[in-house]
Amino acid sequence: MSARLLLEEMLIKRSQQKKRTSPLNYKERLFVLTQSQLTYYDGRRERKFRRGSIELSRIRCAEIVKNGGEIIPCQNKYPFQVVYDTNTLYVFAPSHDSRSLWVQSLKGEIKDNAVVSAKFHPQFWQEGAWLCCRQVEKQAPGCEEYNLFGDISRKPLPPIPREERSKNKKQRRPPPPLPPESDDDDDDKEEEEEVMVALYDFPGTEPHDLSLVKGGEYVILDKCDVNWYKARNQFSEEGYIPSNYVTEKTSANLVQFVWFSKQVNRNKAEELLRKEDTEGAFIVRDSSTPGTYTVSLYAKSAPGEGGAAIKHYHIKESQGSPLHFYLAEKHLFSSIPELIEYHKHNAAGLVARLRYPVGKQDKSAPSTAGFSYEKWEINRSELTFMKDLGSGQFGVVRLGKWRAQHRVAIKAIREGAMYEEDFIEEAKIMMRLSHPKLVQLYGVCSQQKPIYIVTEFMEHGCLLNFLRQRRGSFSLGSLLSICLDVSEGMEHLEANGFLHRDLASRNCLVNDSLVVKVSDFGMTRYVLDDQYTSSLGAKFPVKWSPPEVFNFCKYSSKSDVWSYGVLMWEVFTEGRMPFEQNQNHEVVTLVTRGHRLYRPKMAPTAIYDIMQLSWLETPGDRPSFSQLCLMISDALESETPPPN
Ligand code: ADP
Asked: Using one digit for the tens of pLDDT, what is the confidence trace for 128-138?
C-alpha cells in the first residue's frame, strides 16, 4: 500500500518498559507518518532498517507529555506520547514546534478512530508508576480528560477514588483485539542490555571515546577494562567511557541521587554542613558499618541545643519481610529514596525537615585512569607550563595544563635520576591504579628528554607541609579523617598487590577539597641514587621502616603498614620528625631493642593503640589496611556523640 507521506523526522524513542521496571534506553529513530501508519527506522527509510510500526487505526491518544520536573535524559527535550492498544510510545522531539506538528498531525489522522480514549495520563509511566497520578498499574485509567481538539493545558480531573478505579477498569471499552504478532516493538527486544547513568560530564578526548552528559543513560557494551567501558549513547554512537563516571540505574543504587555522598565520613559531613550553614541541610552517607547508611542533618536552632546542631540518624531496617527502612519508627518505607522523599516534607521527629541536600552539587568530577582508554603516551606539545610547585628526588614539579584545560602536575625527570625505561613500562600498570585516595597518574611523555610524568594536580601540596603550616588548627576528627583517607588509598594498593615502599606524609598530597591522597607509590624502585636506595644510605627512610626492611630489605604490605603507623604519628604530632633527636643508625638500634615512638599528645589511647599494632615486630601480627580502615572509621564515628 502506498500511503501519502505526511511527516518525516529524526526523533528519539524511549524503550517501552514491557517489564515493570526494566531499564530504559533512548534511541534515535527516523519517524515516518503516513495516512495509514506511524513507522520508525534505524537510520534509513528502508524495510531492512524498520524497527517498528503502528497502524493509525489502533492509536487511542496522541498528546504531549507534561514534564513534572524530572530530568529528560536525552538530547531532545520535547516529549509526546502515542497510546495504542495497551501500550504507550514516548517520543522526544527536538523543539516545541516539531512536537506540535507531530501531535497535531497525529490528532488529525486519528480523529475518526473508534478507539480514541476518554482519558489519558499527562505524565510519564516510569519505574512502575504513573508520575501524574501515582497509580501503579500500567493499565490504570487515565487521570485527565483527553481532548482531541484542544491542547493539554486544561484543568485536571479530580482524582479517581479507589473503588471507582476498579469500576472504571471494568467499564472501560474492551481493548481492540491484539494485532497479529506485529513489528511494533522490535526495539524492545534489546531491553535486557545493561544501562548506566552518567554521574558527571565526560568530554571524550580521543576519537574512540564516547562523551558523557551528566544524567544521561548509556548502554554498556563491554566492560573491557576496570577503568574503561565500551558504551553506546541514544544516538547509537559507541566509544569508551570512564567506568567511575557511571553508575547502575536501579532504585537501590543511591549513588545516582544528589543527596547521597559515598566517600563522606562523619567528620567530612559535619565540615560540609557547617560550611553550608543552612537550616535543614543534609547528607546521606555510608555509615561506618558497611551496607548501612546515616543521614547527617543540620539545624540552625535545634530545640534544647541553644544554637546550631548536627544530628546523625542511622537509617534503620525493620526485621522480617518485607524489608522496611525508617528513621522514625512510625514511618516505614520500602526504599531509602522513598524515606528521604517523605522526610523532605515532614520532620516527623527529626530536628528539621531534610530541606537542602549538600555535598554533590559542586563536586568536581573525579580523575580518570589516564585521559583515554589505553592512552599512556601524552603528546608534549599539548602541555603548557604555569608555575613551579616544588622539587624532589627526580626533579622539578610544575603546574601545567593539558590541551589548555585540564590542570595537571608535570614532573620533569632530571638526567640520571631514574631508571627511565623500567619506569615507562611500569607506568602502564600504575595508570590502572585508580582510586579517589590515590594521586592519579595520567601518562608520560617518553619520546624525548627530559621525560615527563603527568599526574593529578593537588592544590595544597604535600601533607607534611600542610600539617606543619596549620599546626594548632586541627580537631581530632580532622586528624582521623586524614588517616582514613590514607588508609583507603593504601587498602586499594594492598588489594591490587602493589607495594608503596616509601609511605610517609611527605609522599601524600592534599587537594582543594582537603582530601588526602597517596602519591609516589612504587617509585623508589626507579631511583638511581644509592643514598636513597641502600638501607645504609643517608636518604633511606629508616624512621619509617620496620626491622625486616632496614635489615633485609624485605618489603610487603605489612612493611607498608608499619610506615602507615609512623605516618599516623606524623599526623597526630602535626608534622613532627619521628625520632627527632636520633640519627638513622640509632633508630635501627632503638627499634631492634623494641623501642617505639611515644604517644602524641593529640592521640587518644585508642588511636595510639592502632599505631602500636602497626609496629608489631612480626609482620603477620600487624593489621591489614582493610582492618585499619575499619578501625579508623569506627574511631571517627565514636569521636562525636553516638547517633540519635
Ligand atoms: P620526587 O618524586 O621527585 O621526589 P615529589 O613527588 O616529592 O618529587 O614532589 C616534590 C614537590 O612537588 C612535593 O613536595 C610537592 O610540594 C610538589 N608536588 C609534587 N606532585 C604534586 C602534585 N601532583 N600536585 C601538587 N604539587 C605536587
From this structure: 788 888 777 77
